[in-house]
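Dig into this one:

. . .
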Amino acid sequence: MSLVAAGGLLLAGCGAGSGELAAEEPTGPRSGPQREFDPDRDDSIFGEGGFSIGTLNEVFGGGESDRKGAIPVNKFLWQASLDTLSFLPLASTDPFTGVIATDWGMTPEAEGERFKVTAYLLNTELSASSLKVAVYRERLNESGVWAPAEVNPETARKLEDAILTRARQLRLASDGTTTTG
């Protein structure tokens, strides 16, 4: 330890010119973990109350463990939402909050219109109360500018029905098979 201190003092005494003091190097926290993560001992990779490995397992189909840090979503509703909304480009998907958002997309049937959809998965049940869909619509006006347009309330309901139907199909298809992981 005293050798390191003596070396530090020697370097600090070396100035760039006469009468100048060398600038001190900024110090901060040392990089790297204080200790390595042990999955058998540690529940969280970010310390106590942090993000849980168990949450990752549950969201991505792992085993049953503590649910910390995420809203659990129904895996069939999640996949069915992705399948049903695949006709639109995806803007973002977040399985931890249960939100799937599409970007603006057009359909051949509706020329001069574009649509955007956000699906909210609210819990683990495979039921209508676990899903909320919001639809946004814009029309191209005479000036060539996209302007918000009214959306038929039935559109969101029809998308919700299509997602729920697909989710039930996925669940029935998985009942006869066993998966490991």
